[in-house]
Amino acid sequence: MGYAYVIEHMEEDESTPACLPPWVELEYCHMIKLAGPSASVQFTHLSANAGSSLGSKLSRFSGECEEEKLASYAVHSVSILELLRQKNVPISKVCLLDPKADKALQPGDKDEFGWVAGDDPPRDRTSELRRLGFPSRHLGPVQMTTDTALAVTKRVVDDGVPLDEIPYVDFPTVRFNARESVEMPFRYIREGSEPVLPPGMRSLLHEDLNKSFEF
Q: Cis peptide leading into 121, omega within 30 of 0?
């Protein structure tokens, strides 16, 4: 059985929109592909509206990827702490991805933890979990997108690849044509010379870029 990845989504309250931003949904769909068939991805702390929308999006994505092996997933309104209580998982078996952690994630951590937790969007919510005693690890000094962080974690703990041997690209420029491009303010895994982006992200970025020029 593979790892369980928990994404604590930061929703304010039920006044949130009926769906998550499109780029968030694309990243979350990408995560169930990146985690692999032996893993599970748990999305926690979502409002009823956002959770329902995300569940529908993940279901459609799974249907479109029938030939691919995806992780199992579940969408929850409860927080990670309540989920762990329901699953009888002790905090000591959950690795909190924390940029302020003293230790970097390494392949040997596979035998110590069974769950990996992070928050999205990245904010100081991590400090609240840190105070509760979660053991923690960092993924290096440069901020990653949430789906990239999951992919890096899988490569380290499941595939046994050290952090510094994973090919990265920092702050890549995504080019659409000779005149249009956008710089991404994150670290990504590199495949060839290109950052690994969620399916559909390039089109969404281009669409948003064009909207910024509409008056």
A: yes
Counting beta carbons within 10 angstroms of the beta carbon of residue 166, is it exposed (0 to 12), middle (13 to 18) or buried (19 or more)?
middle
Calpha distance 51→96 (Å, rounded): 23
d(CA 148, CA 88): 28
SS (H, E, C) the chain: CCCEEEEEECCCCCCCCCCCCHHHHHHHHHHHHHCCCCCEEEEECCCHHHHHHHHHHHHHHHHHCCCCCCCEEEECCCCHHHHHHHHCCCHHHEEEECCCCCCECCHHHHHCCCEEEEEECCCCHHHHHHHCCCCEEECCCCCECHHHHHHHHHHHHCCCCCHHHCCEEECCEEECCCCCEEECCCEEEEECCEECCCCCHHHHHHHHHHHCCCC
Amino acid, res. 148: T
Integer distance in angstroms from the first to the last C-alpha of the chain? Answer: 52
Quote the CA–CA distance of 83 and 125 in Å, as a whole number. 17
pLDDT in tens, 124-150: 556 667 777 899 999 999 999 999 999
- Token pair of 190 as six digits: 């590199």
The predicted-structure confidence for 30-44, as pLDDT tens digits, reads as follows 999 999 999 999 999
Low-confidence ranges of the chain (pLDDT < 50): 13-16, 214-215
| Cβ atoms 61, 32 nearer than 8 A | yes
Report residue 43 as tokens.
Answer: 């999305």
